[in-house]
Amino acid sequence: MAPRDCAGPPPPPPPPPHAWVWPGRMLAMGALAAFWVLSLLTYGYLSWGQGLEEEEEGTLRAQSGERPEPSTTATSQPHLIFVLADDQGFRDVGYHGSEIKTPTLDKLAAEGVKLENYYVQPICTPSRSQFITGKYQIHTGLQHSIIRPTQPNCLPLDNATLPQKLKEVGYSTHMVGKWHLGFYRKECMPTKRGFDTFFGSLLGSGDYYTHYKCDSPGMCGYDLYENDNAAWDYDNGIYSTQMYTQRVQQILASHDPRKPIFLYIAYQAVHSPLQAPSRYFEHYRSIININRRRYAAMLSCLDEAINNVTLALKTYGFYNNSIIIYSSDNGGQPTAGGSNWPLRGSKGTYWEGGIRAVGFVHSPLLKNKGTVCKELVHITDWYPTLISLAEGQIDEDIQLDGYDVWETISEGLRSPRVDILHNIDPIYTKAKNGSWAAGYGIWNTAIQSAIRVQHWKLLTGNPGYSDWVPPQSFSNLGPNRWHNERITLSTGKSVWLFNITADPYERVDLSHRYPGIVKQLLRRLSQFNKTAVPVRYPPKDPRSNPRLNGGVWGPWYKEEYKKKKPSKNKAEKKKKKSKTKKKQQKAGSFPNCGSGVCHHRG
């Protein structure tokens, strides 16, 4: 049976007081002391429960009216709460005109700062890697696609992560939700990358109730973890949005608000498969398109979950010294119910619909509340911004791509960021008509790339699905592409230029009108490319099959796999060496070979 809502049951009460036993004439004094401690704990428990009402099935909801914040001696370091939604479309929030009701997100954004020139990456792994390292994909080797469950790949271990830097300055660090940064080795797991605790999934998607995922026929397994072990105890058919919210409540209930905490809450919603508890469908019966209706129900549930997270922050004394950041990881997928209208394109593309995201900051610590920030902000910026807010240090030898944008957001100052490298993917399907000639000898336009410099955005290669998908596309069981504004790419087209400030919907290509600007941006791409590391995208490893790991997706790579098997004899070794040498001579010289991927300039 589907759970009733996404609030979660009440968090556990504080631990009971210890029994005090005193010998002889100290017994009476001990009894009084015990009574005094018990009274304090009882009072504290009752005050913690303020603002919560119990509904049926043990769930919680907020009482009407405002509830006073419990008084605490706050740390000078703010509590940092980063909420990452999955596949939420640009239009899919109430304050962007959506028909989907998101009262919590609307209220938090209205009372905080809305980020209306905010960019992420077009797919899951890249956004998450850039958030946690402050570096572009080209500087971590994750330029291409996502990390697949069967790949021996993960976020490179030599990158200092955000939670690791926060731990250095005394933060307790917790992650709840979707990891999707690789797990083939134990060293890749969240608890080895800076998180004190982890509760969530390792893969990119899975069933919301059973927490199982099939990557391909015969490649299926359980994907729910408590720290470094499969969380079989939670295999109870609980909807993941509800379950993750429960865990956040429990973490806050057991943490001392006088000590700083970093909470990374990466919800699975609203990524496919499209599943939601039945009660959330009630308000969306008028939506004919079944995918859009399911998506709307999922987003409503997520909105309610955010409300309960905010309530928990207030209930347990964190809110007054907290900074809540909300972000989607990429644009919406129209075929799975998401909408990016009026932006062009969708998830997985470098059009604005794939990379321009819903985002806002809500905090009592903001100087200018209730404002809109139109300055350029990118997901890599959270790394230096949060470390700076935490009073941490960034090593001088670390080359970050992010900027500290707190004064931009809080005080309305100009952003230190003037450009964004959206990506350079040297192994994505090449544009058939791209060439060095089309790139003025500066850049091979067959390569998929995108860059923003001030008002200008340049795309080369194959940017991906380029339709505009208006709301009426969801009126049928499609979405019906007859309603879409479709663009047939001109023969020979491999370069586009837009003034995004004047034309945020990418309707007027200016590449022929301003060849000088095209050349400038191509040179900037070329400069970035010189700093790129080799792509990490290894072939699948059959040892990753959950059948070989107790039915669970999890680390499979062991140290003994590294050891090379000795050759049978010297003659065989010599023969193998000779074959390898011939192969190299035939292939030619490729300077950027690494991790099984080679790139050639031509």
From TrEMBL:
Do you know which InterPro entries this protein is assigned to?
Alkaline_phosphatase_core_sf (IPR017850), ARSB (IPR047115), Sulfatase_CS (IPR024607), Sulfatase_N (IPR000917)
Which branch of life, at top level? Eukaryota
SUPFAM superfamilies given in the database record: Alkaline phosphatase-like
Q: Which residues form the Sulfatase N-terminal domain?
A: 78-390
Could you tell me the keywords of this UniProt record? Calcium, Glycoprotein, Hydrolase, Metal-binding
Cofactor(s) the protein needs: Ca(2+)
Q: Which GO terms describe its molecular function?
A: metal ion binding; sulfuric ester hydrolase activity
| Name of one Pfam family that matches | Sulfatase
Skewed-composition ranges (Basic residues): 563-585
> Which CDD domains does the record cross-reference, listed alphabetically?
4-S (cd16029)
- The UniProt annotation puts the region (Disordered) at 57-76, 563-602
Regarding protein family, the annotation reads: Belongs to the sulfatase family.
Q: What is this protein called?
A: Arylsulfatase J isoform X1
Query: Which source organism does the UniProt entry give?
Result: Odobenus rosmarus divergens (Pacific walrus)
Protein encoded by which gene: ARSJ
